[in-house]
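Worked example 3 (structure in, sequence out).
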């Protein structure tokens, strides 16, 4: 069996990535591990960081994949980049991800400042990224491992990867079953809450949300509040009433029920910067067989890896490796 270092959402944080790879023992211009370990990236290599850093990260990871020292699965930001570049049909000036939406323009601004040739280089690599991988003893996906959905997507695509622009078009078309399936795997499930709270909440970027991300990995809890992600409470409006969520009985219908460990990113966990002994917390970030490795590296958090060792059959919280924070090229955009 093999051993893996599964690395969270990088989001253009080049210095954090190079520091973490060094801490994990990877060396060389194309980093490799002397013990033959493989780095596994959970996706979201791009966006938030400076354009030059984003390009350098894609080139670094692509080179590691080519040399066999890494594997990289697709994140929703790689999918979004492909959708932004893909017209709804050949020759159309309308794209699968709208060019007229100011929020899209803002999110992609740094990446779009790359030259056309540089962006195409990135797109070519993004198409090579599988949506999920099942490795020796561990599964890796960007947001949510849901076996029924994975089986449906594999049957539809004939494998675990998007094959080209037609698949991007299908996965961007709300009337196509692939749309909801790819959303589920790359963004995770959501549950409607505004009918209970009386108003939307606001996510970390200030966008109003009527549906909250569901902690699909979590089993323990009695009420809806135990299972939903509500962003930054300081951004909630005065008309947002959290009390009904604390009283609404809830059983997680998507709780991961396999004995095979799965590692994922996407969920923007937060660390306590004032606690020198800080470590990821059970239920919030991991369970016996699930581990999240996204700790907001695209913002003020560290880049985090989980070391899955040959023969492991469950998650060991001491195997988290937390990278440094003081890295100038990692500033959020």
């Amino acid at each position: 069996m093999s051993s893996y270092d599964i690395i969270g959402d990088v989001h253009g944080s080049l210095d954090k990535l190079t520091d973490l790879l060094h801490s994990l023992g990877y060396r060389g211009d194309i980093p490799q591990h002397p013990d033959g370990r493989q780095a596994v990236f959970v996706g979201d290599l791009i966006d938030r960081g400076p354009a030059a850093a984003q390009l350098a990260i894609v080139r670094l990871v692509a080179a590691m994949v080519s040399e066999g020292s890494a594997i990289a699965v697709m994140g929703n930001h790689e999918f979004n980049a492909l959708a932004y570049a893909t017209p709804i049909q050949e020759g159309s000036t309308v794209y699968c991800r709208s060019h007229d939406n100011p929020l899209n323009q803002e999110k992609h601004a740094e990446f779009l400042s790359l030259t056309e040739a540089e962006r195409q280089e990135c797109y070519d690599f993004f198409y090579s990224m599988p949506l999920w991988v099942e490795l020796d003893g561990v599964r890796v996906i960007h947001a949510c491992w849901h076996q029924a959905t994975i089986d449906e997507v594999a049957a539809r695509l004939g494998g675990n990867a998007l094959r080209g622009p037609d698949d991007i078009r299908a996965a961007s078309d709300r009337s196509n079953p692939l749309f909801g399936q790819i959303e589920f795997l790359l963004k995770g499930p959501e549950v409607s809450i505004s009918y209970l709270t009386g108003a939307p909440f606001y996510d970390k970027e200030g966008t109003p949300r009527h549906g909250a991300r569901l902690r699909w990995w979590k089993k323990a809890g009695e009420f809806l509040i135990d299972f939903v992600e509500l962003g930054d409470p300081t951004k909630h409006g005065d008309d947002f009433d959290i009390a009904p969520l604390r009283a609404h009985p809830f059983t997680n219908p998507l709780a991961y029920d396999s004995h095979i460990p799965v590692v994922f990113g996407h969920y923007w966990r937060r660390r306590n910067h004032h606690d020198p002994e800080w470590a990821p917390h059970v239920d919030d970030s991991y369970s016996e067989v699930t581990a999240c490795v996204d700790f907001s590296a695209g913002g003020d958090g560290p880049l985090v890896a989980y070391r899955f060792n040959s023969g492991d059959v469950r998650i060991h919280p001491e195997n988290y490796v937390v990278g440094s924070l003081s890295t100038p090229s990692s500033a959020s955009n």
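Notes: The mean pLDDT is 92. The chain has ten helices and 14 strands.
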